[in-house]
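Before a colleague's protein record goes any further, I have to sign it off. Would you go through it and say whether the fold makes sense for this chain? Take the sequence as given and treat only the tokens as open to question. The record follows directly below this note.
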Amino acid sequence: MIYRHVAKPLLFKLQPETAHHLVIRSLKTVSQVPGIVPMLAQTFRTKNEPSLTVEQFGLTFDCPIGLAAGLDKNAEAVRGFSALGFGFMEVGTVTPKAQPGNEKPRSFRLPSDEALINRMGFNNEGAEAMAGRLSRLGKRSIPIAVNIGKNKVTPNEQAPEDYRACIRALYPYGDFFVVNISSPNTPGLRSLQHGEELLHLLEAVQDEMRKQHLALGYTTDVKPVLVKIAPDLELDELGSILETIMSSGVAGLIATNTTLSREGLQHSNRQEAGGLSGKPLKDKSTSIIREAWRLTDGRLPIIGSGGIFTAADAYEKIRAGASLIEVYTAFVYHGPGLIKQLNRELATLLKQDGLSSIHEAIGADHR
């Protein structure tokens, strides 16, 4: 209520990127005040909902709703976000070297469509800066995924080394890793989703994960790697990509990144270049999840992302095949109270269908 009537009107008077930085700085600052993080957790976390617990990738998620990459690019406000009721969060996308990203303005709201367009271009402070921040966090309350990418100036044939460099810097600090090859805002990046380029990249990533695991003396399994794919794929392209992903041995899939489609948009900002997120992406991303489950016979765990604004949206993606889901744009439009509401209503939907856990709902539409 406070967000809707006070914070949001003030934030939406600012340029989107300015508001973004203000939120990150504010959450970072308040989370350093003694007693604030427990107070936030007491307010926003969903309690006593064992039906929402998910066991996946060798990790335990207290609820299936995570924060997508792009909001906390530099892992500045992990403590604050972790207290807002999320079951996990992604940080990044991070690249080996710091880079400024694309020219401003590069982020746009489309309120009438409940959508955002961004062409940020992996602006971030680099892998070493993120490693320093994550190393100082200590014990985390939720799993943290590190979303990794390549620098803009790195040609695709050298991309595997950029992903290796990120892993070398950050392996001790991520609970799992996400290979971002699907942002539309880095020239040529999406071509890494296909054929030999994808296979070569994933082989390099998996090799570096094993090397760092052994070098650091871990006795558990190698940390999981997921691949984040685009929503703008034809069925035959998706099938080919999934075959490569399955053969590489990575742990799972994130479906999906932002879209280049502008179908059905009303707001004047629809003409802006970049990736579109929010409600218009919902059906497209759910379709990719449904097809990915079908094409892999449910053998490849999926994190669903794109257009989730309600518990019904989340539940649809879970029943289509997602084990976990992520939000971003809905968080911008509806604020931190959204997560507790989604969790509470998701538990109700499970009960209405006579299900005792999220695991029973995953891929239910296919059975």
Remarks:
- The longest helix spans residues 195-215.
- The two ends are 39 Å apart (CA to CA).
- The chain has one domain: 2-366.
